[in-house]
Structure formats: structure tokens, C-alpha cells
Amino acid sequence: PTPWQKNLEEKLTSLINQQNGAYGVYLSEIDSQNFLGVNYQESFPGASLMKLPVIIAAYQEAERKQFDLTAEYRLKEEDKLPGNGSVHLQPEGTVYTYWALAKLAVEQSDNTAISVIAKTIGEDKIQKTIDLLGLVKTNYRLKKTTPEDMGQLLLALHQGQVLTAAHSQEIIGFLTNTIFNDQIPAFLPDNLTVAHKIGLDENLLHDAAIIFTDTGDFVLVIMSQGDPQDQAQKTLEEITKMVWETIKVGNW
Fold first, then answer.
1. What is the pLDDT of residues 192-227, one digit of tens each?
2. Who contacts 27 (Cβ-Cβ below 8 Å, separation ≥6)?
3. Nearest of 105, 47, 119 to residue 76 by alpha carbon
4. In whole numbers, what is the pLDDT of the chain averaged over residues?
């Protein structure tokens, strides 16, 4: 590790050790694939980060001609799940393309939209996608993952290793246009493009991001469990600012 990596890792470890909850951080410079992490291989409930492998599996099936993203789906009453998103507020019989559902599943973290896609694709194919990506500590059925696995997923997406360039850019576009920007992007300069997916639940706060900069792109994943969301948010803010202070100077 470079002195910068060592120094940042030490500061992150010190901060995380002061918290009551469990935190994991994974940071990778995409061009060099240099990375550092704190508790980055620890397992956390994935919450809405688990939507990402579902979307990638759906697009992979589409590329294999086994799934049609332009096909229409008619909403059923039993599809509706409470929580994030707008689909559950629509009347039964509302028609969506699977592409529109995928977009809503990412941009709005729509629970109903992702559930429809997941049922259509099937749990086995979703887990197979996870396994082929080498995300060895991610279990779709148990909804468990690690900061490293989510970081590797975003790295593969950025590098076009899992989908065509067009599909990769489309999903990155969805991640960039998300309505949830109170976590990692909130503590970075406004001129940066950040493609990211959050995960929220009781005593859970996650954000997994690709940060695009003029001097190179980075993946940053922060996951937490056990602290109330206000405390987890403060810690996420400190982690993000600490990371940015290091990578912005270009001495990574």
C-alpha cells in the first residue's frame, strides 16, 4: 500500500472503531484497481443494494434473448409492495415495460418494480449472475452481501465486463439519476458525477457509488448496521469527506 492508502485506512479504522454500530468501507481506484478497505469482507444485510444484481441479471438475460425488456407487464394488486417507489400507488392493470420497471427500480429504488422483475427472472438466475461475477459472499436468497462484493459489481459494470457498453451506460445513467442523493453525493463537490445506489432499513444505511473525476474514477462503498440512521448518516458523512480529501489531490 502507498503511504496515502495506509494513512487513509488508519484514519478510517480509527473513526469506525469509535462507533457503536458495525461499518464496512471499500474504496477502489478503477484505473489501477488499487483498493483499501475496513471490514470490507464483512457480511451485511444488503437492503436495496440487492436490487443491483437483479437488474444486471435481467439485462444479461435480455442480451441472451431470453428476456424482452420492451415487453409489457400489467400490474396486479398482489404485486404491490409498500415502501419506496411509485408503482404500488398505481391502479391494478397499469401497463409498464420491463425496461420502465428496471429504470424505476434503480432511480426510485421501487420495491414493486424490482419484485416483478425478480419473479420474472427467477432467483436461480439472479444467484448465478452473482456467482459468475465472483461475488462469493453475496447470497440473494438471504439478501446478504459485503462492501467488497458491491464494489466489485460496480467495478465490473463501469468496465463493461458484465454487459454491453450500451447497457452498462444505461444502468449507470439510472444510478446517476436516482432521487436519493443525501448520502455519498451530498458530501462531494457538486460538479462531480456520482452513480450510486443506497440501501436503507431500520438501523441500516448503505451507499455504493462510482465517483467520476477528472483524474480518474473511483468506487466507494459504505455499509453500516446497528446505529440509528442519524448517527450512521453522520459517520457516512465523515467517511466520505475523509476519502475525498485523500483522492482529490491525485496522490492516491
1. 999 999 999 999 999 999 999 998 999 999 999 999
2. 8, 35, 36, 37, 151, 218, 219, 220, 221, 243, 247
3. 119
4. 96
